[in-house]
Amino acid sequence: MKIIIVGCGRIGAGLAQNLSRRGHSVTVVDMDSATFALLGSSFKGRTIAGIGFDRDVLIQAEIEHTDALAAVTSSDEANAVIARLARQYFRVPKVVARLYDGRKAEIYKRLGLQTIDPTSWGINRVIDLLCYSPLNTVLSIGSGDVDMVDVEVPALLVGRRVQELTIPGEIMVTAISRGNKTFLPTLGTEFQDRDLIHLAVADSTSERIKVLLGLS
Q1: pLDDT at residue 48 greater than cutoff 90
Q2: Domain identity same for 89 and 194
Q3: Taking burial as the number of CB atoms within 10 A of a residue's CB, which of 27, 62, 154, 172 is the most buried?
């Protein structure tokens, strides 16, 4: 994939390094060229010094041919402008904007922008680590409305079917890891001992899923 990251702070640099190591073609844009030092000497992507919502800068970054863009500058407003430009003007397929002020999440959602709130996510992950839970949240999607959760199948579910753990609009079994393989189950797939279940869970359903799994 061709990916543009606007903002080369700790999150932007970390994203760029990780994505580059995975073989993606990464271009990093920041108005302060000194921040590119955070990328390290092993970074193989491109760097462009300029304002992230400047049309000419984005074209220089080849936004017209990019697959995804992450706006992770230190400004919510700048991130929103960059994300809207990428989504609505340049038609970039995948766009994510970093959001510091969680109170703006609903506004950006109405504008059709996908946002991430690192502060809220970080707080929830620390709570998970301090208050151990057998549910392992591996990814939060959108504005934290949906979590991707891994859980080892409890004894209660062994021999039961996927459909018994499926609640439309709330809980969906997306995959099962069994032995050395991961596969997409059908509603009729039976859970086996030591299965690792991968779930998509609505944030509002977090307590209900614990009850269904017998973890509450």
Answers
A1: yes
A2: no
A3: 27
